[in-house]
Design goal:
Blueprint: H1 9-37, H2 41-46, H3 52-80, H4 82-101, H5 106-134, H6 137-164, H7 173-192, H8 200-205, H9 209-220, H10 227-246, H11 251-254, H12 262-277, H13 281-296, H14 300-324, H15 330-354, H16 357-375, H17 378-389, H18 395-409, H19 416-419, H20 422-441, H21 450-463, H22 469-492
Helix pairs in contact: 1-5, 1-6, 1-7, 3-4, 3-5, 3-18, 4-5, 4-7, 5-17, 5-18, 6-14, 6-17, 9-10, 10-22, 12-17, 12-18, 13-14, 13-16, 14-16, 15-16, 15-20, 17-18, 21-22
């Protein structure tokens, strides 16, 4: 089917955002669905009441699959392109969902978890790149915040589906349907993607200027002979050509300094994901039901309801990020997020350490407040930043490394059962350490085009220590703006 039959302009942007949103809702759903199933009586009976160790192995097999999926994207993403990578990832998720929902033995179930993990690992790498490479700079923060809000919607949906099936706990459908539902979400994504354009920046990387121009024309809803389309294409092509001339994206040059600052940029993207995971999000999500049951004597069902309600905060605050992500900027939100999370963990540790009912209430209140700071900062920015900060030539590599970092960080919260409230002190300290790291090392990317972000690092490299990143940003805007004007004048003459 030709590009001429596809949506244009705002309709096309909506289609891309919708497909990215459903793909990320699938990611969030897969993250949340298994936690409620492990305690389902029908599930326990089917798999001979698996021990805590076996349950941990089932859970970790999914994370292993996600890590492998991110590695698959690392080595195959630039060959397949954004669209085909997402289609392949969703194919894995359909197969994984079917395998899990039809499982009668643990090996069968674990294989299904691993296969689904392949898909999630690939999607978490590819989807943010596709979104960032096909939207306008002024809309990028907003659209990617919507995408992450869909992620949390998937998590919330999984929690409430699991809660609903607690009313028929002995029927196999209570765990087979939730596991099979992920295949439906993957099929929805696969139905939308073929109608949407490929990333024009990836097409330029492949040397396919004709298709890149057609994609840009559709995104701008203008003829492919329009000056704005031709200037956009020229800007991308020049940036890609300059990157290739300056540095190749081989593993050797990744670890070298140079005008493109490849290693620094990859490290910044991976660092945002490291801070997301080691900022304590998993320990909060895991331990809240335990606190509610042990400290307040709530039933399992009531604790599950409150945890599901609490998870809805993620969705609300990530949605609110659409209003502040570009106004306040990534840089300041990361600083504010680290400081707020440090405060919340300090107060949670204090409350649970004292252990009275009133102080336990204080601890839970600050755990709930944690989602305010997390939802407006690291929840969104960790997925957004790698797709923005890396060059065209290394965006796939940098995003893959960032997602491998993210998935490896999921496994760090062991030991919480044994040391309890003291675990919160660890994350109070880590978030305190993150404040100066974010302050001194991170670069603002809000409302900048991907080409401007690329240029500012080169300008800063040649400007040396005497030049600030703010000055480099202004110079990058001016340099590319002059180049665009010159190209328009050339076209008109």
């Amino acid at each position: 089917m030709g590009l001429s039959f596809r949506p244009k302009g705002r309709q096309l942007t909506f289609g891309i955002t919708l497909s990215c949103g459903v793909a990320f809702a699938l990611f969030g759903y897969d993250e949340g669905v298994f936690g409620g199933i492990l305690s389902c009586p029908a599930f326990e009976e089917q798999f001979d009441h698996p021990s805590t160790t076996i349950q941990g192995q089932i859970t970790s097999s999914y994370v292993l699959g996600c890590v492998i999926g991110a590695f698959m994207a690392m080595f195959g993403g630039d060959r397949l392109g954004r669209k085909r990578s997402i289609m392949l990832a969703c194919t894995f998720l359909v197969i994984g969902g079917i395998l899990q929902s039809t499982a009668f033995t643990l090996p069968h179930l674990i294989v299904g978890r691993i296969v689904a993990g392949f898909g999630v690992g690939m999607n978490t790498t590819t989807v943010p790149m596709w979104q960032s490479e096909t939207c306008k700079p002024k809309d990028r923060g907003k659209l990617m915040s919507i995408q992450v809000a869909c992620l949390v919607f998937g998590f919330v949906l999984a929690n409430w589906i699991n809660f609903g099936f607690t009313y028929i706990p002995n029927d196999p459908v209570s765990w087979r349907f939730p596991l099979g539902f992920q295949s439906f979400l993957a099929l929805v994504t696969m139905a939308i993607v073929p109608w949407i354009v490929e990333s024009p920046r990836w097409l330029c990387l492949q040397g396919d200027s004709i298709k890149a121009k057609e994609a840009i024309a559709l995104l701008l809803a203008k003829p492919d002979t329009d000056n704005e389309v031709l200037v956009a294409l020229e800007s991308i092509e020049q940036t890609v050509a300059h990157e290739v001339e300056s540095e190749q994206s081989s593993w050797r040059t990744v670890f070298e300094g140079g005008p493109q600052q490849t290693f620094r940029r990859i490290a910044l993207g991976a660092g945002a994901n490291f801070m997301q995971q080691f900022g304590g999000v998993n320990v909060v999500a895991y331990y809240l039901p335990v606190v509610l049951k042990r400290s307040f004597g709530f039933s399992d069902r009531l604790a599950l309801i409150l945890s599901a309600v609490d998870s809805m905060q993620w969705m609300f605050w990530s949605a609110m990020a659409t209003y502040v992500i570009d106004r306040i900027g990534r840089h300041r939100l990361m600083i504010y997020g680290s400081a707020g999370q440090c405060l919340c963990f300090t107060m949670a540790a204090l409350g649970l350490g004292i252990g009275t009912k009133a102080m336990n209430g204080v601890a839970v209140a600050f755990i709930f407040l944690y989602y305010f700071f997390f939802g407006l900062s690291f929840l969104v920015i960790s997925f957004m930043y790698p797709s923005e900060i890396n060059s065209h030539h290394t965006r796939n590599l940098g995003s893959s490394i960032a997602m491998v970092t993210n998935w490896l960080g999921v496994c760090h919260c062991f030991g919480i059962e044994s040391i309890g409230w003291k675990f919160y002190l660890v994350f109070a300290v880590t978030n305190f350490v993150f404040i100066p790291i974010c302050w001194y090392l991170y670069v603002e990317t809000a409302s900048l085009s991907l080409e401007e972000i690329d240029k500012l690092f080169e300008i800063k490299y040649y400007g040396g220590k005497s030049m600030s990143y703010q000055e480099a940003t202004e110079n990058a805007k001016m340099t590319l703006g002059v180049a665009d004007i010159e190209h328009v004048e050339k076209l008109e003459n």
